Each structure stands twice: as C-alpha cells, then as structure tokens.
C-alpha cells in the first residue's frame, strides 16, 4: 500500500520516517518530496508498505501523531486520475502573458523596406 504522509517537519530525514513506519511492519520505500531548486523538503512524502494490514495499522495509529512538535497527517495515497494535473495558467483562459506576440506595435527592426512587399 502506498501511504501519504503530510505536515512533516522540514527537518525530518527519510531514515527517521522509515523507522516510524517499520514499527508496524516491513517498509518497501520511503520518499520525502523536495523542492527541485532548493532541495528543501516540501513537508510531505510517501511510504510504501507491502502488507496492507500493517499499512492500515500504521495509518490508524500515526495519523495525528506528533513528530518533532508537528501533528502529521497519514492516509492511504490514491493516484490522481490522469486528467487532473495541475494547471499552470490558474484557469484564466487564453494567453494573457503579454510580452512578444503578434501585437508588437509595428516592426521596429530597421533596415527600410528591403523586399518586404
């Protein structure tokens, strides 16, 4: 079972998270999600456990538990349906980025009218 773990302290290491879950059974993998530019933890991660019963016991007992002063959120991770990826245009519709495009206000590159007609 793939388990989502949120509200993690930014200082927690994957080894510490693994240890917390191994108290309930075998752990296949642990991944804390980090910012790709800074490398800093984003405060959430995923734990994979092969035994669903052990995983459910870990979820039941660790959800709301305090880790380094923070109450963590632990629940079964459900994969996102394919069509629900995050939109980067904030649903504004159209392209309102401005900048260059077809509305530059004329062609100011100079050079006269060499063969433009």
TrEMBL record:
RRM domain residues: 1-79
Superkingdom, natural source: Bacteria
Family matches, as InterPro entries: Nucleotide-bd_a/b_plait_sf (IPR012677), RBD_domain_sf (IPR035979), RRM2_NsCP33-like (IPR048289), RRM_dom (IPR000504), SLIRP/GR-RBP-like (IPR052462)
Keywords: RNA-binding
Molecular function GO labels: RNA binding
Comp. bias intervals (Basic and acidic residues): 77-87, 106-117
Pfam families, sorted: RRM_1
Signal peptide, first to last residue: none
Residue ranges, annotated region (Disordered): 70-117
PANTHER family linked: HETEROGENEOUS NUCLEAR RIBONUCLEOPROTEIN 87F-RELATED
Protein name: RNA recognition motif-containing protein
Species per Swiss-Prot/TrEMBL record: Flavobacterium granuli
